[in-house]
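One thing: could you explain this record?
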Amino acid sequence: MRRFSSRNSLSTLTELNITPLLDLCFVLLIIFMITTPLMENSIELVVPSSSTAKSEVNPSQVQMIEMDRNDNIKLNGEVTSLALLPDQLAALKAQDPQIAVVVRPDRDLAIQKFIGVMDILKQVGIAKVGVMTRPEDAAPPRN
């Protein structure tokens, strides 16, 4: 009777264990799947700060764009259309290159319409843009 096997105990393994390598690949795949959508949806925002403002904006020279939920747009209180708005803003920018514009959208306005006006402001080259809001507790009651 043989107690020992016929195999040599000092033989080398001819196969690699790839389980740790696969675990690492799956972890990296999960990390990239989570972080990639966050990088694609990033937006560059410049947050204004009053302590570092280079020039003060005169409130009487601020142009006001008002938008209501019925697609009515007013520029400084005068009714206009989305098609005429770029020409009117370009004329105002030609008069004053440092023009400042405040957009006052209705709370029930579709966001795509608001983004359309913001795109027009960017196309015209107006950099000083603000959005007028009101505190939640000051909102009028809804009917």
Residues 56-134 form a domain with the Nucleotidyltransferase; domain 5 fold (CATH 3.30.420.270). The mean pLDDT is 76. The first helix runs from residue 19 to 40. The first strand starts at residue 62 and ends at 67.
